[in-house]
Amino acid sequence: MVRSILDTEKQFLDKLIEFRQNSSDFKRWNKVKDLKSDSINYAAVKKKRSMWSHLKLILIGLIAYFCYWIELDRVILESECLLPSSELLQEFFRPPVTNCSFCQIDNIHVRSNLSEDDFYDQYAYSGRPILVSDGMRDWTTSIFNYNYFKNLYQNRSHDGENCQFFPYKTGFLELKDVFNMEPDRASFKPGHKPWYIGWSNCDPTISKALRQHYKVPYFLSQSERTSDDWMFMGSPGYKGAPLHIDDVDYNSWQAQIHGRKKWKFVPPPECWYECPKSHTITVEPGNIFVFDSNRWYHSTEVMEGEFSLTIGAEYD
Is the separation of the CB atoms in 255 and 312 below 8 Å? Predict the structure, then answer.
């Protein structure tokens, strides 16, 4: 009996790897599904699995995850380094998603004049992404740009437990390196190396200055649990964040201040069967995008034209 289970699961894993290596068309999953139900009643066996069986499933998941990751998005293959080692470990040991209903969607909703009740009833904690096209009502954030932040952070430290910095593939080691780059590169002049970075602000004085120009989006109940503001900024026509999943406390919103950014959303591997579809959407200036970054794998790409600047925060 045990050997039969092992042989069948080996066939299933081999088929899954072949599927991921040869095609990105998730509709071929039906062929794998047929094999999965062949010769063994998985529902019955699931109840009888021993500790060894659970360990085997974890190993299978890790191997399948590598195949999924490598083929799913070319940006991973083009990267010199997939992720810092600590983030790679985070990917391996993240809690599995146990309810895949959040990704059983046909498209990403685009709404305007969204009431607070509708937002909380349909989107706030459902895991379903939503773009609010008029989310930045009465904001004065158009003044935000590279020089604005450079002056704001002049002579101020960006050190501390909650001060995070994401250099991606720029070579910058810390935020002050960004604000010390040569002017032509900072202004995205042709012939200079493009860049894209992100950081969290943990300076209360800077947070107060920023919040003079924007407030909690109108469709939220003014209930943000964190004072940390997030900023992501970079060159037009350049890859943004590679495909990844977050480990944050709450859901988040991100407001597109300048430029256009294309987002890609992919369900986690454990939801492949129930959610065979990935989604893309382009966010325009003035839009606010809300999603659960702990459940969706996501990547970004800055579109041609203006440089991209996004700010955001978490909400409860």
Answer: yes
* 3-state SS class at 39: coil
Give φ, ψ of 264 to 5 degrees. Answer: -125, 135
Q: How many residues belong to the chain?
A: 316
Beta bridge partners of 265: 279, 298
Confidence of residue 294 (pLDDT cuts 50, 70, 90): confident
Number of other CB atoms surrounding residue 55 within 10 Å: 11
Per the structure block, which two tokens stand in for 44?
């019955």
C-beta neighbour count of 281 within 10 angstroms = 18
Q: For residues 135 and 308, give the distance between their C-alpha atoms in angstroms, rounded to a whole number.
A: 17
For the full predicted model, state whether its pTM sits above 0.85.
Answer: no
Would you state the pLDDT for residue 311? 95
For residue 292, pLDDT beyond 70: yes
d(CA 107, CA 277): 9
One-letter amino acid at 140 equals: T
User: 3-class SS at 12?
Assistant: helix
- What is the pLDDT at residue 160? 62
User: What are the percentages of helix, strand and coil residues in the chain, rounded to 5?
Assistant: 35, 20, 45
What integer pLDDT is reported at residue 307 of this predicted model? Answer: 95
